[in-house]
Amino acid sequence: MARRQARAAGSGRWLPWLGFALLPLAVPPAAAPGGCPSACYCVATPELVQCRYERLEEPPKELPATVHNLSIAGSNLSVLHRAAFAAHPLPDLRLLRLRHDNIQTIEDMALQGLSSLHTLDLSYNPLLSVAAGAFAGAPLLRTLQLNQALLAAPLEEQLALALRNLSLRRLELAGNALWALPAALLPAGLEELDLRNNSLQRLTTTELQSLEAPGLRGLRLTLGANPLSCDCALRPFLAWLRATVSRVSDARNLHCAGPPPLRGTAVLRLRPEGLMCAATEGGEPGRLETASYVFFGIVLALIGIVFLMVLYLNRRGIKRWLHNLREACRDQMEGYHYRYEQDADPRRTSTVGTPGL
């Protein structure tokens, strides 16, 4: 018992020192430079402000002037108005994370005053409208995250206008049910594109050609968790993937979702000649299979036409042959009929039955 008390007393002496050691990391709202919003908490090194699930309807106004990273999650911002973060200058803000905030509309110059912003995360918001100048207030924006943010409405044209004057280096579009490569959203100079967990069955020849444009030759893709259809239409993508495997960071983890015989097979292990043109699940029949059926039908039609022509050209000989066949059958039947009459004659039967007469 005495040993336990001594041990507890020894550990108790360290608690005040431990508290002083952790004190610089947790700054209360009143101690943060420029003040910390009451609905958020601030961390001093590096300067971080997090506002989680406070149901804010607009970005907090009283933010520390030296904040580097700002995260607002689980609120109801709904609309990012013009100069939404310009109540106080935030010259050092580099990362702005706005996840699960029910953002539906982003107005022109919504990021006005964020001259150092490098990364913007708008993932998991039901975006409905994005103004052409939505990101104009952030000239240094290099990373834009829009994961599961394009499900509520088709925004490709609006986003293309909003991104045209930016120098993005990374664009994340995971989980948006995309059926095709969003070529309009790929500005020149883009280095990384995340397309995981979409509805891509393949990249078409046209889409592959767009990736070879002068400003996109260094673009690296991430394509995991897409339902790749491993039929004959995949051959152009398979050839491109093997030739430029370094451009797809998860190339070795890509697997077939169909057809059933190839489900789960690694794409890089496929052989082009082994990709059949059977109808894909929920898709269109393969082009080569359709062409084969058409060709087969044409061949059968030609054979039928040739057969009819032969019959027509030999109609007299066929008629003569049918006449002779009929006469031969008639003679044969008459012979059978004559024998039947002879066998059925009662006089001949009685004569055969009484040989002594």
Automatic annotation (TrEMBL):
KW Transmembrane helix (keyword) present: yes
Pfam families: LRR_1, LRR_8
Source organism of the structure: Grus japonensis
Name of this chain's protein: Trophoblast glycoprotein-like
Every LRRCT domain range: 226-278
First and last residue of the signal peptide: 1-32
Domain of life the protein comes from: Eukaryota
UniProt xrefs under InterPro entries: Cys-rich_flank_reg_C, Leu-rich_rpt, Leu-rich_rpt_typical-subtyp, LRR_dom_sf, Wnt_signaling_inhibitor
